[in-house]
Design a protein that fits this description.
This protein is of the alpha+beta class. It is 39% helix and 21% strand. The protein folds into two domains: 74 residues, OB fold (Dihydrolipoamide Acetyltransferase, E2P), CATH 2.40.50; 134 residues, no CATH class. The protein contains six helices and five strands, in the order βββββαααααα. It has a five-stranded mixed barrel. β1 and β2 form a beta hairpin. α1 packs antiparallel against α2. It is elongated, with a radius of gyration of 18 Å.
Length: 223
């Protein structure tokens, strides 16, 4: 009989399959990014309905198959359901899932990225720091976790922007979202983060395109 595995993770993709099932992509601390099928998760009253939602975070119990896992049950600690009441924050959150998906792989230590994702979604729910700054901090720290960064800003940056860059690079994951920037410093910081990110990815993220529509403004170079 196959062993039942317990993995700590978050749903970063959820796709309907057939009439009642879902195909999930989980970012897990122990095994990195994995694919799992939640059989019957779309049936009314299914115990897997909640655990198969985007952003659901907790302990997932699964059986390992040849090409994918099969979800048996889960103990969810956080659903981040507050994001559903704020469309802009929800789009930022979706982007964080997409970027984590891009930078993550299978059979790797995803503990740091999972913690970063969790802390960043919490920051989106806090009024203490603007969502646009949360985004740029998340992007830079994701590059740091993935080893795709420079110790100093790659472009022009004043003292405040340069300090913010160095702070994000070196700060513990639990201490990231503790500062704000002036408009000028944020603009410099944002441009440098975007420059670094453009070297790491060649993908257009749908969630960022939706943010442009919500903002009802011409596309910003940072998007």
């Amino acid at each position: 009989m196959r062993d039942l595995l317990s993995l700590t993770g978050m749903v970063i993709r959820s796709t309907p399959v057939g009439e009642y099932d879902k195909r999930l992509v989980l970012l897990t601390r122990e095994r990195g990014k994995i694919t799992a099928f939640a059989r019957g998760a779309r049936r009314p009253g299914s115990r897997l309905m909640g655990p198969s939602r985007l952003f659901a975070f907790g302990t997932y119990r699964l059986y390992e198959g040849r090409e994918a896992y099969n979800l048996q049950d889960a103990e969810i600690k956080k659903y981040f359901e507050e994001l559903s009441s704020d469309m802009e924050a929800a789009c930022y959150g979706q982007y964080f899932l997409e970027l984590s998906d891009w930078f993550s792989g299978e059979n790797m230590d995803a503990g740091p990225q999972l913690l970063l994702l969790y802390q960043s979604l919490r920051a989106l729910l806090s009024p203490a720091i603007p969502d646009c700054l949360v985004r740029r901090i998340f992007e830079l720290k994701t590059m740091v976790v993935g080893g795709e960064y420079t110790e100093r800003p790659p472009g022009k940056a004043g003292d405040a922007a340069a300090y913010a860059w160095e702070y994000v690079v070196t700060a513990p994951l639990g201490k990231l979202y503790t500062f704000r920037l002036s408009d000028e410093a944020f603009s410099e910081f944002s441009e440098n983060v975007q420059a670094g990110l453009s070297r790491c990815t060649d993908r257009e993220f749908r969630s960022l395109k939706l943010l442009e529509v919500l903002a009802d403004r011409p596309p910003d170079p940072g998007f």
